[in-house]
Amino acid sequence: MLQKLRDKSSGWIATTIIVLLMVPFLFVIDSSYLGGVGANNVARVQAPPSWWKSAPSFWPVSMLWRSAEITSDDFRTRFEQVRMSAREQQGDAFDPRQFESLENKRLVLEQLIDEQVVRLAADEAGIVIGDAAVAQYIQQIPAFQRDGKFDADQYRLALSQGGVARSPAAFDALVRDSLKQAVIPTALARSGFVTAGEAERLFKLLGQTRDVQLAVVDPVAADVAAVTDAQITQWYADHGDDFRQPEQVSVEYVELLASQLPPPVAADEAALRARYEAEKVRFVAPEQRRAAHILIEAGSDKAAARAKAQALAEQARAGADFAQLARENSADPGSRDSGGELGWVERGVMVGAFEDALFAMKTGEIAGPVETDFGFHVLKLEETKGGEGKPFEEVREQLAAEQLRADAEGAFNALSTKLVDEVYLNPTALAPAAAAAGVELKTAGPYSRDDAVGILAHPQLLRLAFSEVLIADGTVSEPVEIAPGHTVMLRVSAHQAEAAQPLEQVRDKVAAAVAADVADKAMLAKVDALLASVADGKTTLADAAGKAGLSVQALDKLPRGVPVPGTKANAEIFRAQAPAEGKPTYGKLKLDDGRHALFALTAVTAGEVAQVPEQQRQMLTEQLSQIDGNNAAEAFVRGMREHFKVQVSEDQL
After folding, report:
1. Residues 522, 523, 528, CA angle at the centre, nearest 5°?
2. pLDDT value for 475
3. Residue limits of the PpiC domain (predicted)?
4. Residue partners of 576: CB distance under 8 A and separation at least 6
5. Domains (ranges, CATH) in the chain?
6. Burial (CB count within 10 angstroms: exposed 0-12, middle 13-18, buried 19+), residue 550
């Protein structure tokens, strides 16, 4: 039946057959399949079946579509990872409330959707990741290494720490899924290339220089005394927002610093031994086995594959070189060339049947064939280690250090708890709580959002200080963790709303602003007059500048991107159109110090490719190739999304 559907995958006949097939399911399907994303999901990605790529998306034919769900937990986990990364990059400038915007959430969700699209495409392409490739990838992760080599203890420790602890088996599945997802985009990214002509054009553009003549108009002195009352009044009316008193607060706050607490007393021998007995399992190294394998893919003839694996196992038991058998017969590309070597393996890394067989073997034994989803395996156990516990004396210093940290954290947490409990008894006063906890009450202000200093400039504390709730109620804030072992609580003691400053109060500032504007316009007028004098092409910039009492500065062979005569000015010069033969291109620009200038672009010289060092040429070519490859990968995802169906439930974000 399926073959017939493949042969006739379009037209009303195929559609009718599918509809008839779906009728019995009307009475057994879950309502979530009839449309929508589902109660616990934020998005669903659906792809047509690989054997009917033109299948319509309407129900009930849509039930044949392959589906991938993005759960609320998936989204929250990824969003938290992105949040932690942003916090680390931005430091004190990180604003949690701004980060929680719907725009940011959609960006994270779109990334997850793209990943599901690529995953479905990989399934359609029949991509499978072997055990050896997973093990090799895990062993190369720096976080799991010590002295540049994979360390099983470090591996387990790293998995148990962080925001989401994982078992080795769960991490194995995550790596396998990630590698599978990365195959197509990685291949496309590596396929990028740049032609020699494109690279040469870029080198010429990057190395381009320009000959420029620059006539700078000196600043005109701002004459505040010449500013009239009418100008002041008009300027104040037009620019009132520039002369407002910003919102200000005064606060009282307390800081809890773990580093300022008395150091804890070192634990005695009995306490350390008790801790060791309670946590002895931590210090038992898991059993590890160094193994090699030969994989025979089952294909369409499962019996033949099993027979071949059986024959190879018998040859190995008879003394044949196992490594040579693996090189000649194994279908695992990750281990074949190394004679089937898998390295050190512990429980939870390999698939169940493979792992059960491996850990039931004796050193030097040949086992197999062992059947898994990947085919039939012939195993060889080469060496074992682990399973022994470390004695107390070997881990005593580690336990002592851990106990000191735990005691210090306990003392800090106890102080924090006492302070919070006292605040809850009187939430509109911070002084009694500070006195009861024995910490200093500090005060600051008035200050605005723009002139907060020190710890009060921290984004979270700044947001709390100007929050409507704390201002209106006068209550103490929740504890804010600035850093591990550093917590702050504050209360707004006074508040002054934003207000317009009376003209009489800011009259001098307004007059200065008017005078500065008049001076700036006077400079610009001189530049415009200079430009008009050379516009007909009969007068050179040097002659026009000389008549105006200005000097001309020549900037020959000016490179692109240098801060000469200024960063923005350099960009303006390189945006100007190349001059015609014997006719300069003129333009105006403003320098970083506020002065205005007129420039004449007289020549443009392309970069000499031969002068670009070979290493730099190669690096730029590789960067261009990477850009081209990345564009190809992005285009692939966009193209796949056009053929897939994506449903999003924003209310679950």
Report:
1. 95
2. 94
3. 286-383
4. 585, 587, 599, 601
5. 30-191+610-653 (1.10.4030.10), 208-241+505-605 (no CATH), 247-265+396-497 (3.10.50), 286-385 (3.10.50.40)
6. buried
What pLDDT is stored for residue 29 in this prediction? 34
* Token pair of 551 as six digits: 């000097």
Query: φ and ψ at 42, to 5 degrees?
Result: -100, -20
State whether residue 487 is helix, strand or coil: strand
**What is the model's pLDDT at position 443?**
95
State the pLDDT at residue 283. 78
Q: What six digits make up the tokens of 534?
A: 């050379």
What is the rounded distance in angstroms from the CA atom of residue 243 to the CA atom of residue 566?
A: 30
Euclidean distance between CA atoms 107 and 40, whole angstroms: 20
Distance CA 75, CA 126 (A): 27
CA atoms 418, 420, 422, 425: torsion sign: negative
Total Cβ atoms within 10 A of residue 238: 9
Question: How does strand 341-346 pair with strand 288-296?
Answer: antiparallel
Looking up tokens 């500048």 gives: 545
Q: Which two tokens stand for residue 588?
A: 């105006």
Q: Give the pLDDT score at 31.
A: 34
Q: Does the CA dihedral 47-48-49-51 come out positive or negative?
A: negative
Rg of the Cα atoms in the chain: 36
Contacts for 394 with CB less than 8 Å, ≥ 6 apart: 283
Cα separation, 446 vs 450, in Å, equals 12
Residue 32 φ then ψ, to 5°: -65, -20
Looking at residue 162, what is its pLDDT? 55
- Residue 135 to residue 154: CA distance in whole angstroms: 15
| DSSP assigned state of 389 | B
Length of the chain, please?
653
How many C-beta atoms surround the C-beta of residue 46 within 10 A? 19
Inter-axis angle of helices 392-425 and 269-278, nearest 10: 90
The residue type of 337 is D
Angle in degrees, CA 377, 379, 382, rounded to 5: 160
Tokens of 271: 């306490």
Buried b (16+ CB within 10 A) or exposed e, 469-490: ebbeeebbbebbebeeebbbbb
Ranges of residues in the chain whose predicted pLDDT is under 70: 1-39, 61, 92-93, 96-97, 161-165, 387
34, 67 Cβ separation under 8 angstroms: no
Q: At what angle do helices 503-534 and 229-238 cross, to 10 degrees?
A: 90
**Per-residue DSSP letter, 351:** -
Q: Are 249 and 465 in contact (CB under 8 A)?
A: yes
- Which contiguous run of DSSP H or E holds residue 43? strand 41-47
